[in-house]
Amino acid sequence: MIPQHEVPSYLTPHEIGPWGDYLTQIERVTPYLGSLSRWVETLKRPKRILVVDVPIERDNGTIAHFEGYRVQHNTSRGPGKGGVRFHQNVTLSEVMALSAWMTIKNAAVNVPYGGAKGGIRVDPKTLSQGELQRMTRRYTSEIGIIIGPNKDIPAPDVNTNEQTMAWMMDTYSMNEGATATGVVTGKPISLGGSLGRREATGRGVYVVGSAAAHTIGLNIEGAKIAVQGFGNVGGISAKLFAEAGAKIVAVQDHAGTVFHSNGLNVPKLLAHVAEFGSVVGFSGSEEKMSRDNFWDVDCDIMIPAALEQQITETNAHRIRAKIILEGANGPTTPQADDILHAKGVLVVPDVLANAGGVTVSYFEWVQDFSSYFWSEDEINSRLTRIMTEAFNAVRQVSVDKEVSLRTAAFLIGCTRVLQAREMRGLYP
Ligand SMILES: NC(=O)c1ccc[n+]([C@@H]2O[C@H](COP(=O)([O-])OP(=O)(O)OC[C@H]3O[C@@H](n4cnc5c(N)ncnc54)[C@H](O)[C@@H]3O)[C@@H](O)[C@H]2O)c1
């Protein structure tokens, strides 16, 4: 059963979108929070929402305006932390939900951050490099009043990357009058970035996915995997699973789907995407597959690594995988969670599965403050340890309380956030 949620006056009921999914997830964990449930309303209201106008001069001399957001959902455990997304479908509901999932995720893996997220409603593919740079800089300047190395630290997300972070760092630094590398993570290595950050989310997905497979007796070697989204998260996860002997049988991105029953050649597919911008036209695909048929693919693990609300009550019953490994944030709706649970599919939730990115972002931030940089081996082994421990802790709670991995991860995360809230007390 999906409850009706109270909708804040700044969202209309039909716009509740991913924020509604998040509220249902909070409803589901609340009965397990004991006396801390007194504080649970704090998780249902973002602490701070900033909506900004981002005007730029286009290359042709016209002026374009874009809608920009930064939401700080909760800062009880530390500064806000979360990515910045450039996408034509960005909405306030989406950014609110993404910021809230960051709160839960950061607490679930115990990095000392609150949760935040930002975005601009724009299709960046329609902008030149110069326009993209001007938009990124103006947005950074507009949200500059609430971000900072000790306040809120953005990072890359969908359609943003190291170059975006370099422009953001430079803009913030110019406004401050001093170079502030710690204001963003996911920077280029030459500007205070961390080794292993680019691969960190995909690596974490691989580590947690392998641990989850082990618990159901599934061998990664020879396992069939379908991946939706072949960008930073989907591309790296697919590469690591393929290197471990899995067969990546299907890959879908924004433009199309490719399939090979014996496994696609992942390095060649990555090279194709780097050259042509999508998987479409890849010569190593066995057959053409419609977008919708992706959900019927015969596979052991499905990795949604694109956008929210992809697995819903309309397609969940068709999924043949034994494990859903959430690389994306919010890919599975609560209704789909129920269907998958009834089918015996193990859903490894986003707030655990994709936490590798923010974990190495935390390493990057620590390295920036101490101006002392670690080796890639050190980073990867610390990442693997944190992700494995987090998975084991979540699984233990799920067994003890007889709840899904998602509710278990929420239970750990919400408990840490609400304990901090209670101990700090309400100001004034
Ligand atoms: N980058 C990170 O470190 C990180 C960390 C944690 C979670 N995530 C989450 O992972 C997801 C992907 O992020 P990313 O950084 O890999 O982004 P990205 O921009 O690098 O890649 C996004 C991919 O999704 C595909 N895509 C977009 N729309 C699609 C659609 N409708 N159907 C199928 N595929 C579609 C794109 O073609 C692309 O392959 C997002 O949910 C993001 O919030 C990212």
From TrEMBL:
SUPFAM superfamilies the UniProt entry points to: Aminoacid dehydrogenase-like, N-terminal domain (SSF53223), NAD(P)-binding Rossmann-fold domains (SSF51735)
SMART domains: ELFV_dehydrog (SM00839)
Cited Pfam families: ELFV_dehydrog, ELFV_dehydrog_N
Upper taxonomic lineage: Bacteria, Pseudomonadati, Pseudomonadota, Betaproteobacteria, Burkholderiales
Biological processes, Gene Ontology terms: L-glutamate catabolic process
CDD domains noted in UniProt: NAD_bind_1_Glu_DH
Family: Belongs to the Glu/Leu/Phe/Val dehydrogenases family.
Residue ranges annotated for the Glutamate/phenylalanine/leucine/valine/L-tryptophan dehydrogenase C-terminal domain, each copy included: 194-425
Residues that coordinate or bind substrate: 81, 105, 361
Native source species: Solimicrobium silvestre
Protein name (database record): Glutamate dehydrogenase
Record-level Gene Ontology MF annotations: glutamate dehydrogenase (NAD+) activity; nucleotide binding
Active site: 117 (proton donor)
InterPro entries, per the entry: Aminoacid_DH-like_N_sf (IPR046346), Glu/Leu/Phe/Val/Trp_DH (IPR006095), Glu/Leu/Phe/Val/Trp_DH_C (IPR006096), Glu/Leu/Phe/Val/Trp_DH_dimer (IPR006097), Glu/Leu/Phe/Val_DH_AS (IPR033524), Glu_DH (IPR014362), NAD(P)-bd_dom_sf (IPR036291), NAD_bind_Glu_DH (IPR033922)
Binding site for NAD(+): 201, 232
Keywords attached to this entry: NAD, Nucleotide-binding, Oxidoreductase
Site for Important for catalysis, residues: 157
